[in-house]
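Input/output pair, single chain:
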Amino acid sequence: MKTKFSTNMMLKQKLIVIFILLSILPAILTTGLSLYQSKSLVEYEVSSLARQIAKEKVAYIDSFIEKVSAEVDSISKNPDVISRDTAKTMEVLRNVKESDSNTLFVYIGNADKEIFIYPKTELPQGYDPTARPWYKKAEESFGNIVITEPYQDAGTGKMVITVAKAFKLADGKTAVAAADVSLDQIQSNITRTKVGEKGYAALLTENGTIIVHPTKEMILTNIAEKYDFGKTIVNNKSGSLKYRFGGEDKIAGFEQSKLTGWIAIATMPQSDYATKLNKSIVYTLVILAIISVLAVIIGLFLAGNIANPILLGVSYLETLANGDFTGNVAEQFLSRHDEIGRLAEAINKLQANIRPLLSELKTSVETLTKNSEALSAVSQEIAASSNDVAKAIQEVASGASNQAQDLQEIVSLIGNITTSLEKVYNELGHVKENSEETSRLANTGKKELDDLISSISGVREAFEVVVEKLGTLKGSVGQVGEILEIIKGIAEQTNLLALNAAIEAARAGDAGRGFAVVADEIRKLAEQTRVSSEKISALLNDITSETDEVVKTSEEVSAQVNNQLENVENTIKAFDNILESVAAIAPMIKATYTEVDNTVKAKDIVLERVENISAVSEETSASAEEISASAEELAASTQEIAANAQQVLEVAKRIEKQVEQFKV
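Output:
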């Protein structure tokens, strides 16, 4: 294979193959790396999005639980409850229940095995609250809010949790305030969450049991026990992972609530982000194809620039090897300063050294041949005159006739030369016009490129203004965020004040009931203000992130504009080179045009002279017939001279035949 490549391919083909390989192979490697990086980047973006959604779900859950916890905590601190005022205790429980639609039951159990529950419900005979898991768990974490594992309510089938807190009554005995809370609101929020086109969100307990899932059959399934990816989620608590489920590859982000221990999951199937990745692959392959085509075109151009001068040099050496020393090495190669120029100079010197030797040898051989021919002719004529003077005269006439025919052929050849010269004259006229048109177009192109530079500079200045304005926008968004934090703090403080007001109103009894309602409404408004502030804060964070991305993109576009500006300036330099080349070649074309015009005029004079010579030759042929036998008596004395002259002539012709192979 190596031998075939080295010996069977022309130099130009080798250069093209090598250049294409050196151009396309790096492009292929770069394309492969780019596709791999694109896939990794898309997967990273998807996993980041999924994890962000999981964090948002955890924040929502924590907010929900904190609200219920605050209500239970307020019960444990209510003076009427602590003082064991039954009527007022039931009123407190009723207010808490009616303030939150997600609360199913609110109740208090104490060490005396008493239980106060709202709404009232029938309990089994001998019901002992102190034996219930929620009571024991709260008692073990006395003074702290505890949350039970989610369970499915037997009556409604809903997922429910119990939020409880142990506290001391006025008589020093232990009691536990608790609320059974439906997870319908959390389920609705999570199941309505879309991750991409087909992705979804779910919620697990700390040990991996699903409590919220868009597919009802999956609820209460422990994925940590059934699937490896579930075990990974439970062990790591937060992060992201790739896994396969239901015959489909997926990416999930997950986050654990530090308040409940629950784990929120956001998952997206690979098919959702594969479209974006496939577009990236198509764009990359199109770019690779363009690079390949450009590589072939540039390879052909460069290979031609390198190989063509060498091929011309080889062709010229072959001409010299065949004995033709009449040509000259082109000036365009002699003026080069690279290896090709040195090769052309060496060939030129070789020809210059050999040409004088051949010219001198050829001249000497021609002289010898002429003298030998003259001697032989004289001897033959003298010898022939002894036999037949008429025959000699006839031969002279025949020679004159042949000379006249040769002159007619010369006249015909000059006619052909005339036609060729006229074609050359006309073509040079076209070349002259094309050169002038090229100069005009190059000047026009340079002017348009100057206008393009002005436009690109304007675009660059506009982008700089855009980047500056985006920075100002980002600062303004930050200031709005600070104001929202203040509003959020005010809302939280208002919530606490409303809660205290409700407690004071409760103490006031019926007289303070209207005030309690107002305080409760204020608390609700404060809570809504806090939630709205958090949503606005999240939106501001998104705006800040998108603003940063726009700034980054604007800076990249600005860099591209600068690159375009540099490319256009390089193009203008190329146009300047074209103008210089056209300006340099125009006088040469004009001079050549003038010389050809002079040659066309000179050929008419040559043609006239040849025609005159032809007429004289014809007259000579006629006169030769009148010559009589004047050399018969010389025949005997010149026979020996004729034989010797013939031998010399044969030797001279053999030498002349060898020398005729060389043209100088």
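The longest helix spans residues 389-508. Residues 323 and 662 are 4 Å apart (CA to CA).
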